[in-house]
């Protein structure tokens, strides 16, 4: 059975103190509750180690929002995967549309990042998704397939250690959300693509998350779709009272 996951991507939000307070608040809110999914928070680099400590003893997993394609060396400002892993974090978001758009990340770079993450025992949450123009002109499936090619350099064994996140770029932070039918169509397409590359077993065991203005009000409908295994949550993950209803959407 593939894992159900609700992961928060804090992006460039929260100071160290605010991040620790948010993590502690989430830990308190989850305490004693039956949780039917894996809960993950991916924080700015500056907070990762402190948040790992803050959520100790809880169900919350911690991740970084990126890692370097390099192992070590003269790369000022970069953070290596082994540095992320040394904090106790278990996850890393790779290929987020904002990294692709603002930092020019392409498949060549992302292959290196995937390899670095996996070599250091991190679970990559690998993001794919189309912009509005690609959705409207009907090329979105080809675009997503092209983005998946970075993951398809992995062996079946390594691919099985990854999570995929579908994030339609036109729905991130815009208030627009793919309908549950639109999201399900793409999730099913991604799963079929994985099956064609590897096999049905690998595809069936891959968790595919939806990201893009997912909130408590639409999470139950999205999560009811057969190929949607959870969410990669942006703005709604920045407050306990908006993140908890998404976690609780898994009955």
Q: Which strands sit side by side, in order, in the main sheet?
A: 7-6-5-4-3-2-1-8
User: Total number of helical segments?
Assistant: 12
Q: In total, how many beta strands?
A: 8
Mean pLDDT, to the nearest integer, reads 96
Shape assignment: globular
Low-confidence stretches: none
Helix content: 40-55%
Task: Name the helix and strand elements from N-terminus to C-terminus, one letter apiece.
Answer: EHEHEHEHHEHHHEHHEHEH
Task: Report strand %.
Answer: 5-15%
* Through-space gap between termini: 16 Å
Summary tags:
alpha/beta, 251 residues
Provide a descriptive summary of the structure in words.
This protein is α/β, with parallel strands linked by helices. The chain is built from 12 helices and 8 strands. The protein has helices spanning 16-30, 48-54, 81-86, 97-103, 107-119, 132-136, 140-148, 156-159, 180-197, 200-205, 219-223, 240-247; strands at residues 5-9, 38-43, 60-64, 91-94, 123-128, 163-166, 208-210, 230-233. It starts with a strand and ends with a helix. Helix 7 (140-148) packs across helix 9. It has an 8-stranded parallel beta sheet. The mean pLDDT is 96.
């Amino acid at each position: 059975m593939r894992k159900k996951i609700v992961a928060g991507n804090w992006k460039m939000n929260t100071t160290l103190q605010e991040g620790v307070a948010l993590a502690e608040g989430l830990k308190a809110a989850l305490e004693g509750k039956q949780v039917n999914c894996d809960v993950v928070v991916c924080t700015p680099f500056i907070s990762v180690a402190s948040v790992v400590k803050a959520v100790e003893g809880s169900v919350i997993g911690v991740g970084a929002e990126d890692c370097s394609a390099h192992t070590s060396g003269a790369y000022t400002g970069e953070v290596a995967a082994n540095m992320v892993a040394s904090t106790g974090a278990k996850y890393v978001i790779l290929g987020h549309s904002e990294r692709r758009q603002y930092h020019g990340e392409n498949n060549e770079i992302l292959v290196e990042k995937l390899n670095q993450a996996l070599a250091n025992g991190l679970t990559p949450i690998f993001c794919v998704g189309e912009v509005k123009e690609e959705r409207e002109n009907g090329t979105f499936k080809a675009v997503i397939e092209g983005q998946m090619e970075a993951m398809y350099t992995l062996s079946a064994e390594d691919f099985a250690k990854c999570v995929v996140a579908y994030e339609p770029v036109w729905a991130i932070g815009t208030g627009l959300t793919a309908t549950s039918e639109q999201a399900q169509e793409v999730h099913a397409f991604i799963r079929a693509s994985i099956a064609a590359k590897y096999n049905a077993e690998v595809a069936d065991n891959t968790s595919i998350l939806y990201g893009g203005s997912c909130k408590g009000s639409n999470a139950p409908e999205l999560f009811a779709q057969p190929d949607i295994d959870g969410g990669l949550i942006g703005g709604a993950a920045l407050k306990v009272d908006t993140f908890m209803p998404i976690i609780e959407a898994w009955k």
